[in-house]
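#struct-queue
[09:14] JT: dropping the first one here, sequence first, then the structure tokens:
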Amino acid sequence: MKSKQLLILLAIAVVLGIVYVATRPGEETWGEAAKSGQAARLLPESELDPTKVAGMTFTKNGKTVNLVMEDGSWIVKERFGYPANMDNLKSFLVSLTDCTVARELTLSDTQKEELKLDDNGAVTVQLKDASGTVLKTILFGAQHTREMEGGGMPQGMMMMGGGGGAIPNGRYIVKDGKSVLVSETFSPVDSDVAYWLDKEFFKIEDIKTAELIVDGKSLWKLARGDKNADLLLDAVIPDDKETDASRLSSVKNAFSWIRFNDVADPDAKPEDIGFAKTKTFVATDFDDFRYTIDFGEEKDGKRFLKIKSVEWIGEATRKPGADEKPEDKKKLDDDFAKSIAEKQDKATELNTQFAPWIYEVGTYSLGSVDKSFDDFLKDKPKPEPEPEKKEEPKEE
């Protein structure tokens, strides 16, 4: 195809696209109206004071998630009082109070069922005050979607690479018995209970030493002298073996970005979470924090760990410098004492926050440290055989 013809086709495609956008039937301009402030709010201040909300209940198909404020902190009741994710919680409340009504709807029972606004399909959200009194009940139905490029687009636009498909851009809701369409998708109401957990977690950076203990016996120890060095296996290596550098390196980063999926019942039976037999991983970092972590065997496709303790084991007495002046001593002593206090406080905080809980982590998360001594070794490469020497022909 000549370049001139291609340019003409592209120009036609663009024109068709513009005409399509301007004339497509049923495509709502309500999204723009909502953004411009022309639409009424779903929950105006006259109906709900967000500062009075001290509880939220999400119910669907008999399953319930309760977020409750207790002693000034939000918790997830279905997860044994584990702290709630404040970012997710605040974002949801802000979305509720900022959301605008795009369109009021008159729906038959059949239409409500199709839009999941009946008892079988809707997510019922109750906002409660500190006494447990329900302030507002809202039913969240199906999300409203909009077709993307390729989904009903003109042929010319599809030729330009439109992928098609639908994206959510609103939600069907029932509030105070009235059915409405709003300009917010409210995806969090479809999330499972783990979405509402505070996912802040510990991490171990710059591991200095590492050890795995089973039944009170050390399986292996690793150590390095500085942050730029590699971890080395603290053991005598058999003559026919050498250490596997990649596996040693994986230990160094094993808990740099650790995440958890869920929390277990603190009173769970050990056999139910793979803790009938456990291993203990002990690591220190270059800030002299020592982490002791118990973990069990895989159970029903899940693995669990418990942060047994976090301790600061550094030197608590400052050694004066050789050329230290007397007038500098007090400031240096005070700075050192402050640093020690901060590290001890950090250890206490980590213990308080994480030690009471058992965490479900990905099955891959412990793979780097759940190894035997032999896993860190590999066979030495066999030497190449020396080439045979050819005998020079004898001169007669």
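[09:21] JT: and here's the second one, same format:
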Amino acid sequence: MKTILISVLCLSMAGSLYAQSSPGYHLIKKTTVGGEGGWDYLLADADGGRLYLSHGSQTEVLDLKTHDKVGVITPTPGVHGIAVVPGTTIGYTTNGRPNTATMFDTKTFKAMKEIPTGKKPDAIMYDAYSKRVFIFNNDGGTVTVLDAKTGDVAGTVELGGAPEAAVTDDNGLIFVNLEDKNQVAVFDAKTLAVNHHWPLGTGESPTGLAFDKVKHRLFSTCQKKMVVMDSKTGKVLAEVPTGSGTDGAVFDTSTGSAISSNGEGSMTVVKEVKPDQFEAVQTVPTQRGARTITIDPKSHHVFVTTAEYGPAPAPTTENPRPRPSVVPGTFLVLEYGTN
């Protein structure tokens, strides 16, 4: 009996030590892209082997594996989001300044078409079920819906709130954060009818949204917390603390983790540790300003963008709390993984 107990204890300790020594998410590569201007969303296109980065008035295109710069999409003034249509050579950007979307060729990176949208087009996504592209207009409370292959406007959704990031269940439903209402709105991808407005508990100003399609869990990043919701019922299951400046979110199917990118310079990794019980299992250091995130669904590597910061300019009457300046030429991408 003693021999059996000792063996069991040794196995238990070995498993515990393995769990503690598991590296989790860690930095794989850091690449300076350079140039000037701010940034917002980024997109890992696994099929095309490209990493698209919003950057000021243009969109940088990198090789997904090497980070070598392979092209630039211009003009995309005030670019926010990027989407590509699988199986085609068509991509789209949302341009916040002129309230347009740019349809571009993913091979040549040349602009093909300029499409009027609602006010302040921000997040964008392709939905394979409806074969449509959805553009979320943050200032207008609407969604501009495009035929993915032609870029023609197919309709408009009235959300009743300011949309941020969105996800699809690949079966006809679109879920989107409403930043000013502290809700998740649900609408039909084909009829465009809004079915639900689900409150996010104590979550405020939701931005990033990740989705576990197998377990039907939505992960909405709010101020310093991630709210976990049942995508079938709208029930809030958990509220997990994150870092500050939380903005983006992705779900990694390989680890069963929802990951938030926090502008303070960290990523928070959230997992279901017991049925309907969620905890932050890792805080990954990144770099200040790295608030948006994307994931390569094939390699399961995650990417964030930011830049180096200089001192803030002197306060003025018009701007009593100026933001720190961005050092020109320091725009960069950080790649993380578990392998």
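[09:30] RK: nice, looked through the second one.
[09:31] RK: Helices lie at 2-21.
[09:31] JT: good to know. The two ends are 39 Å apart (CA to CA).
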